[in-house]
Structure formats: structure tokens, C-alpha cells
Amino acid sequence: MPITPMEIYKLLPKTNCKKCGEQTCMAFAFKVVNRDKQIEECTPLFEEEKYTKQKEQLLEMLEPLKEASETGLIVDESKCTGCANCIVVCPVHAAEDAYGSGSGFGPKIDDPIYRLENGVLKIINVQRCRRYGKNRILCVACRENCPSDAISFLEG
Amino acid sequence: MYTCAGCSCLCDDIEIETEKGDVKTVFNACRRGAGIFLNYRLSRAEPMVDGKSADFEQAIEKAQELIQSSEKLAIYGLDTTTLEVQELAIKLAEKKGAYIDDNSTFCLGDFVETILKGELPSTTLEEVKNNAYVITYWGSDAYHSLSRHMSRYTYYPRGGKRQRGYEEDRFLVVIDVRKTHTAKLAKKNARFLQIRDDLELIEAFNQALDGKAPSIFVNDIPRILKEMEKADFNVIFGGLGLKYGLKGNYDPFKNLMARLNERTGVYFIPAGCHPNMRGFNELMFEKTGEINRYSFREQRSSDEFAFHKLLENDAIDTAVIIGTDPLNSLPFEYAKKLAKINTIVIDPRETFTGRFAKVVLPSAIAGVETGGTMIRSDGVRVELKPLFEKEINDERILGRLLEVV
């Protein structure tokens, strides 16, 4: 299940103390989901005892963040059947590997984002994804065309 | 580059890394295809005579003996083997005056027959990739049965006249009785028709073609027809759902295709599973004018010569089973009769039928240990290249069996 900023916000102190450097707790929650900020930067949560329960819940909730790649992409290999829909629809593949994965074949470039290895999807070059880096585009083409929900993104 | 003989897609862009005579990594294959290469060493068959292990020569001599003494022989299977092997098997059946049948009897053989007879217009998957606009999956869950079908040949790839990708240059229609995984892909520029009866839907299409309001899917059917008229190249992939929905009467579907083709170009390709089923059908059609369930003794094809019917009627005394597992796949009431007759199993892997067979002859896996030619579901010939060469394969075994007839 994707994590939403609202779920995180509900468990934050909601005091807008600005100790983390953000104007509001809601803004901080957004940055945590996008992994621009770490939850540890909310110092009152870790220092003040009254938040202990909330802190534990939050840490548990944020556990999947560690498995996700830099773009928030999670591939569940147990659900993947290797249909390669995601590889062919990927706009980066279509632009840079038009005669390979853009035309339905296996990737013919050296550094594709995705590749089928032993029948399941593997992420190889996540830094080429349009979701990577500062000026990202929140593209969901691969997830939209995965009928078995093997691909998911953290922010939903 | 290797060809995967896992299903009738016959993807020929598989790359394989080997290490010390073993497969290390398989690239570009789907889960089923990769499994064939990765697990090729597992559960391999051993030569057996009367349930006890024997050496290969003993097993082949016993098989020759059984064939020689047989009066009513049947050959069954063959869909996972190459054309070269099928040719030898047909030759064996012809010389012996035997029955020959494959899985197409209850798979998509009937559709292949109509295409070979020219009753339904067909095309190739390359043409589909380059030209097709409306792509219909009728009674077929391609996502599971032919995993790379949509991404490699039909809906997703860009090519020829269809450069803008699936969102703008394709229109997907999925027709099925339940919301399958393939149906989940019908989102933008697509329609999913959840039907109860195929004949009812054909009737509704006919009503729409007559200019009346269809009885079901009042909005969807006119929209689909309008989309079909936008392009002169559309395609219908028919699966087992369509075959069994038509209940043996193909005329309503043929009429619908003819009526659609008066307005626009609509082609038909069977979306089947067995890698070389169409190959067997084409070879038989060239030789006899029929595609399966054939008796060389009586020189005709009939329903009663289907393998399960032969078993039911106790019409055979010996069966040569090549590359299939009838005890596992046929209903038990038919399959149990296999125990009463002499069975010769030729298969690279251990099978359930093999455990009860008189003779088991281990062969080689097509596409991994032996090469050859196969015919894809659209009728295109695809070459197979072996990864590791194995000395004993189906061709050699059948060659030896042919010596005695």
C-alpha cells in the first residue's frame, strides 16, 4: 500500500515548530514521503516522551521506504509474470531504444531502466527514469500497464 | 539470440548467459520461458521398460517390438516438438496405417482449419504490429497464456503506421466472461465487454451492422464499429473462450467476420498456447487435407478418431505419446484406459503418463537441446537454435522406430 503524506501528518506533533526547517508539519510530511527529509529531522518527535507511541507507529509505517528505489518505485517480483508491458511502454525506452524495447523486442541499449532477468522484472538503471532527480515528472506508465500490480510507487 | 519454445509466441530475442555448461541468466524471456531454460536439468526422464530403468538401447528395442506387433496404433502429442519430428511421426503413422492426433482437437485446431481453408482472413503478427488499430482479444487471457503477446506483437509496440504508441494509435477491446488480467489493461481508448454468451454478442454486432440498436452494450458496440472503420486494418485474437462459446458452430462467427470485412479490414489470428500446434495442423493439411484426428487406415478424419474417443471406445492397442502428458491433462475416465494398452512415452521430462507406460524414451527439449523449425500461431516459420546439443533427440528416436515399419 502506498504511503500518503496525510497518514504521516496525522502522527506528527502538528505544532508547526519549524525545527526541521519546514514551515509546517504538513510540508514536512510531503518531504518525508518524497524522501527529501528523514523522519529523524523532526526532533520533538524523538526527544519528547509524549510522542513515543506516535514515533513507533511512524517508524513502522515508513519501513517500506527503505526497500524502495530512489524514485519511490517498488517491484514485487513474486507477482511479476514477465509480460514486459512496462518495458515497452516506458517513454524513456521508446525515445532512446526505438528499435529495441520501443518496438517490443528486448532492450538493445546498454543501460535500460528495466530488463527481464530470469523471467522477472529487474530495475537496472533507475537514474534514467523520468521520476529521478530534482526536475522529475511523476510518470506512472509502467504501473498503469501492470495488471498484476507488481509495480507500485510509494506516493500512490 | 535464442528462440523460446514455451508458447506459440516463439519469441526469438532471448539472450542467455551460460556458465560451465549451465544456464546462469536468461534475459528478455517471460517467467514461463525463463523457467524452461533455467530448469532444463530438472525432472528429466530416464529410459524405462515396464516401469524399471533400462538402458536406452533396451528401451528402443522394446518400443520397436511393441510397434511391430501393434495392429491398431495411435500417435498423440507432438505440439511441443519441431516440424522435422512431426514429419517423421506422420510418416510413421502413414506407414503403419495408424491414427494420429494432437492437442489441437480440443485446443484451437478448428480456427487453424478455417484459416487454412481460407474461410477467415488472417495476417501475421508483424503486420499487426505495423498496422493494426483495433485489437480485440476474444475469450483469451493473453496476459497469462501468452505473456509477451501484447508487449511484443500487438498492443504496446510501436511500428510502421503506428508510431505514437498504444495511447493514441491503438484501440483495445477485451471480450471475456470475467474481468481477467488482460481486461484490466482496457483503460483509455479501450473497451471491456463482460459477456454471458458469445452468440448473444455476435447477434448484437449483427444488429448494430444492420443499423439497429444492439440488444446489449448499446453504446460500446457502435463505438467499436466506428473505431474499426477509422482504420483498414483491425485484428481479432480468438482464444479458447471463443471456441467453446460458439459450441462447435462456427458459421455465426464467420458470417460476422464477412460482414465486418465488407466495411473495413478485420483479420483473425488464433491466440493459442502450444508452441507448434499450428505446425502439426499445417503439415497434416498439406498431406491429407485434414488437420487432426486422422486415420491413415481409413484415409479420413472424424470425431471418433480423436485420441480421447479412441481410448473411450477401446479402439487402439498401442499409443505413442510424444511430448505431452495425457494422464495429467485428459479427463480421468478417458486417461485411465491408458493403463490397459501399451504406451510408449517419448518426452524429455518425467511425466505422470511415463510412470505407467510400458516404455519411456527420454528425448531432448526443443529450443534448448535440439534445433529445428516451428510455426507460430500466425503461420510464420521460426528457426530454433539449440543452446546445448544433445545426442538423443526426438528425430533420432523416431528414426529408429521407423526402421521396423
TrEMBL record, chain A:
<keyword id="KW-0411">Iron-sulfur</keyword>
<protein>
    <submittedName>
        <fullName>4Fe-4S binding protein</fullName>
    </submittedName>
</protein>
<keyword id="KW-0408">Iron</keyword>
<feature type="domain" description="4Fe-4S ferredoxin-type">
    <location>
        <begin position="71"/>
        <end position="100"/>
    </location>
</feature>
<dbReference type="InterPro" id="IPR007202">
    <property type="entry name" value="4Fe-4S_dom"/>
</dbReference>
<dbReference type="Pfam" id="PF04060">
    <property type="entry name" value="FeS"/>
</dbReference>
<dbReference type="Pfam" id="PF00037">
    <property type="entry name" value="Fer4"/>
</dbReference>
<keyword id="KW-0479">Metal-binding</keyword>
<dbReference type="InterPro" id="IPR017896">
    <property type="entry name" value="4Fe4S_Fe-S-bd"/>
</dbReference>
<feature type="domain" description="4Fe-4S">
    <location>
        <begin position="1"/>
        <end position="60"/>
    </location>
</feature>
<keyword id="KW-0004">4Fe-4S</keyword>
<dbReference type="InterPro" id="IPR051069">
    <property type="entry name" value="ACDS_complex_subunit"/>
</dbReference>
<dbReference type="InterPro" id="IPR017900">
    <property type="entry name" value="4Fe4S_Fe_S_CS"/>
</dbReference>
UniProtKB/TrEMBL annotation, chain B:
<keyword id="KW-0560">Oxidoreductase</keyword>
<dbReference type="GO" id="GO:0018493">
    <property type="term" value="F:formylmethanofuran dehydrogenase activity"/>
</dbReference>
<protein>
    <submittedName>
        <fullName>Formylmethanofuran dehydrogenase subunit B</fullName>
        <ecNumber>1.2.7.12</ecNumber>
    </submittedName>
</protein>
<dbReference type="InterPro" id="IPR016457">
    <property type="entry name" value="Formylmethanofuran_DH_bsu"/>
</dbReference>
<dbReference type="InterPro" id="IPR050123">
    <property type="entry name" value="Prok_molybdopt-oxidoreductase"/>
</dbReference>
